[in-house]
Each structure stands twice: as C-alpha cells, then as structure tokens.
Predict the structure.
Amino acid sequence: MLLTLFGFIVGSVIGAAHFTFWMEETPSLPAISLATDTGLGYFGAWVLQLIVFAIIIWITFYIQKKKNPPKMAPLATATGFKRIFRGSWPLLAGAIILAILNAVTLMVRGQPWGITSAFTLWGSKMAQSIGIDVTQWGYWSGDRAAQLQQSVFLDSTSVMNFGIIVGAFIAAAAGGAFILKKIPMKAAAASLIGGVLMGYGARLAFGCNIGAYFSGIASFSMHGWVWGIMALAGTYVALYLRPLFGLSVPKPTDTSC
C-alpha cells in the first residue's frame, strides 16, 4: 500500500501536467446532473438512483448463484463496546456512518468528500522543491494557484487525508493487522504501476472511488455512474493481468477478505 501511495502521487502529478490537453484539446460533454438537468429534481433523482441500486443488487445476487464466487472470510473482531475500537464493524453500520460523514463533510466544506487532489498537491510541491515549475501547468491556474504557496495544513483535503492515514494505522495496530513484510518484486512492480495508473486516472476523472464515484453519485452527478462502469471494466481486465505479476486470481473454492 505504501508503494501504491507513492505511485499514486507520481501518477497524480503526471495527470496534472497533462490536464490541459485532456480538458481543452479532446472532445467533451457538458456536466450532467440527474437532479437539475433531467427535470426529476433532487427527490426524483434520489428515487431513480435507489431503483438502479436495487437492480444492481438483484443482478449481483443472480450472478452469484450462477458463478459461485469466493466467499468472504470472517474478519477478526471484538465484541460489545470494544468492537468500536478493535476489529471490523458490521458492513451496514460502516456504510451508514460513511454516508452520514459524507453529508457532514459536504455541509462543512461546501463540497463532497474527496481524497486525490491532496496527493496532486503534495506531489506538485515535491516537484517544485527539485526545480520543476508546476505553476505553468493549466491545472495549477485560477483558484488552485494559491494552494501551491500555502501550507498543506491549510488544505482541507490534505488535513482529512492525514487523519485517514493516521486513523488507519491506529485501527490496524489495534486490530493486530499492522504487519510490515517483504513482498516479491513482481508484486512491488504491480503496486507501483497500479498506483501510477490510478493517480493519473483520478486526476483526469476529478477523483477516485471516493471523490468521483462515491461523492459523484451522492451528489447526483452522471460522471459518478460513468466512473463506476469504467472501474468495473478495468477491474475485469486487471484480473487477466494479475498472473503477469505473480498474483493469483481468486477461485470459487477460495475465501477473500
């Protein structure tokens, strides 16, 4: 994951350098909101998305019966009050808390939860420190320009990311899951390459599975659904590429975590 994070930052910076080309020199569509551009309104768009989610769930269960996918292995957890701090939470509880916190983030920051813009900022500041003039890139023009001159602690996305990273370390340590170990060179290469691709794609898509997908759909943006479809397609392709890096592909008899 540390290698992937490094690759993600590198990919984000490269994406920022190429940002103008993709945004201004390639064909594009206007922004589309399911709430304001379709006549459905916010309530109608909410109902429509719930219907789509229900269809997706039904298709998932249907395919599951046909394909017999690997079952998820039980996750280590504590009981009672201790479960808040140690081990896994119920998926439903985690989903509800994430939705509530995303809504709170929207109210406090005035924009949905995002992650990857901070990685672009960190990487661009690092690039500046070694003499690369990132201020000439279109991505760092306009409102974003001031971010390069300020401390990262004045960037709300960076502060949230710091909290997420520290919280993840604490949770992993409390659950006994924080273990540093050697990994094969092929797996390391896959982590780096995957990180670079994710960082580059996230910069062009205005976010990752948080900013572009989770927050995109939550804010009724059509691009969130497009992102989800392409992510599924990319995952499907990646399953065929895993053996090239010495990584196994799950079988129906396996368990997954």
The chain has one domain: 2-256. The mean pLDDT is 86. The chain is about 60% helix and 0% strand.
